[in-house]
Protein: Zn(II)2Cys6 transcription factor
Organism: Byssochlamys spectabilis
Amino acid sequence: MVYGGRPSTGCHLCRRRKIKCDEARPTCRNCAVHGAQCPGYREAFVIRNETNKARQSVIKRRNPTRPTQRSRGEDVPTIGTVPTHLADSTWEERALCHFFDQYTVISDPGQHFHHLGFLPGLYALSKQNADIDRACSSLRWAVEATALSSLANRMKIPPLVVKARQVHGSALRSVNAALRSPSTAVRDETLAAVVLLSLFEDINGERSHLASSHGVGLHLLMKLRGEGQLRAGRGRSLLSYAFRQVQTDMLNMSGLPGFDLTWLLEVLDRSDGLQGLMRMTTRVSLFAQDIRRALTTKEGISDILTETNLRSWTETGVQLDLELSRWHEAAPETWLPRLVQSKSGGFLLTYQDISIASFWNLYRCIRIILQGTLLDITTSKVSRRVCDQRILTDLESLIEIPPVRIIEQMISDTCRSILFCLGDVDSLGNPVTISTQEPESRHPRLRAAEAYELLWPLWFIICCVEATPEQINQARTALSRLGSMFGIKLASAMAAAGAQAYQVPFLR
């Protein structure tokens, strides 16, 4: 008896269906999607009589005239082929398995970074009730459209693109029907469907001037659902994901959003690490909107840009930055970044989990927005034209650390996180090779969900005037790589677009 290679560790039902198992414990999520009870997993040790290589050797000796079936190089499937374990499943099943594996992530307990981790189970229930429930129907079609599109783009399969478009049309009709009723509009299924429609738009690179066509709808649904959505884990996870979708409109180059986010300040818990960051982000967004509105007023600008107002704005911005810089104090110690020395020299920032790195990069973008707003108060063209230079000099003295220095530090920290975020190094800064990227490995494995969270911080670097040419090139290269790796066309469009096409939402 000899060892015949590593046996399949998937559950019995996934092995029988010949699809890839996600190996979740205690039960497989693919089984939940299929609507069946997971039968469990095989024993860790399996004894085989002989290897496939030994068996083929015996057959060859018995029939020497039989031609060789495959060369060694042909055993590896190319990007356009279907792996053997998926050969007997439908394209819809393959798309769902791929989508749930790549775009739904449940982090370790206590971290709360759930990238739609609830979606497989909710989809299974929605599929069963889609014929009698509008909200369930909207989620079912939205999931299937996004799943088909993600697989079609990643594996470059044109017929699947057409199929995804057809299902996307069904999803739009179902969502519109669900939104007509107040009772179904506030359901988790409806908000999740709109979130997925926004994701579908980004996978296919269909934003208009990088502004989402679903941003306003997401904001209105979040507000309509109110404080009640925070009482359950799924509601909190949905709010967090939808909030990040809305906030990307603040980071893109079409300007700051005009959403009224004051209601969020009343429902978010500042003592919770994740909700605390969302609350600070909301406050910075409102502050930046107020300053931009004041500085772009066409009439009575001299009455608005008084010394009293300018001083009050500057003091408010400085206080906000002080609180934002201390945000991590309310977060668990496991969220903190680690400064490690790279093998090629210099230093990198690593984290316990790639999802944690995503939130730190969002934090850095928000802090850049805040510092850029402070610069607008003292250095924008309208401020220099209307205000006395003595007043502007006094305002600059209120700011202890120059905003440009903080912006440069935030850009540098984001760039030092890129190698870890891409999965090129582990938490100790050691290079991750192909041989170490096994399912049981402790090294990070980048998924499409985490790649998607990285897009806007990278794009922000490209368009920031404080970024160096080397940093811009590093961000552009990473975006191009993410686009080709995961078939996210928005990433490819960002990498190809020139920084002059859009401007950072600052006035300076």
